[in-house]
Design goal:
This protein has 13 helices and no strands. It is mostly helical. Helix 2 runs parallel beside helix 4 and helix 6 packs parallel to helix 8.
């Protein structure tokens, strides 16, 4: 409830407390639930956003063991996605591949959908636009089958990444329009922030600097409570891109220097 309401810090505190209680009670299933929800509304939370995230996932994997393929698949996918800060891709690709195999063997569509969300994030890159697009398309279909609008939105996000890497301008417009409809249905601050961030990137890419300037501030305010780390980092990156294009980098020199020690 706290997470859906945009109160991410309080949500994380509650989930950590739940994980500790569950482990003392021998409830591996509840430890896993807490770990899976700790990363927030999206499947692409990375280790650097919170130093407690990866240890919690690893603890959940240890108490879950190999007996429950469904839970293990989801935990492995989340861990693979979280390890994107590491410069070498091999480990996260191995974890993501194992997760997807387990999920398909489990034969449960909700497990497969949750696993695909993490798998897509762990494996995406400019060299694999078709894989990203195909994974997103499968996730959208599963989300619609399960009547889960959050999963549909995650799938559309992956499709958007694939379309972006293929430079499919018309496809990007269609996907953003569909995502906007999902955001209206969900009415959650995390997705509203994410859509604003996507629109900001598009405005910067097309040189619509006045639009980008307006989007920057409104998007930051939307995301600050619910996606604090991501909202701040994406805002600073976008401001840097904007000021560089405007020839005004000197205006943010102090902000950039300060950011080095803050993030």
């Amino acid at each position: 409830v706290l997470s859906r309401g945009g109160r991410s810090d309080e949500s994380k505190s509650a989930l950590l407390a739940a994980a500790e209680l569950a482990q003392r009670l021998g409830r591996a299933d509840a430890v896993a639930r807490a770990a899976l929800r700790f990363g927030g509304r999206f499947a692409w939370a990375r280790a650097s956003t919170d130093p407690r995230f990866v240890p919690l996932l690893e603890r959940a994997l240890a108490v879950t063991g190999t007996g429950n393929r469904s839970v293990r698949a989801q935990l492995l996918a989340r861990l693979a996605s979280a390890l994107r800060d590491q410069p070498r891709r091999e480990r996260r690709l191995e974890l993501a591949g194992e997760a997807l195999q387990l999920a398909r063997e489990a034969g449960d569509p909700r497990t497969l959908a949750a696993t695909l969300a993490g798998y897509a994030t762990a494996t995406e890159g400019p060299e694999t636009p078709d894989l990203t697009l195909d994974t997103g398309t499968e996730l959208v279909a599963l989300g619609e089958r399960l009547h889960d609008r959050e999963l549909v939105y995650l799938g559309r996000d992956q499709r958007l990444n694939g379309l972006w890497n293929r430079a499919d301008r018309n496809g990007i417009d269609r996907e953003l329009a569909a995502m906007a409809a999902d955001v209206d249905d969900l009415r959650q601050s995390s997705q509203r922030w994410h859509l604003g961030a996507c629109r900001t990137v598009l405005a910067l890419t097309e040189g619509r600097f006045a639009d980008a300037e307006l989007l920057l501030e409104s998007t930051l305010e939307e995301g600050r409570p619910s996606e604090t780390w991501n909202a701040l980092v994406s805002h600073r990156l976008a401001v840097f891109v904007l000021r560089r294009a405007q020839g005004r980098l000197t205006e943010i020199e102090n902000d950039v220097r300060r950011a080095v020690g803050e993030l």
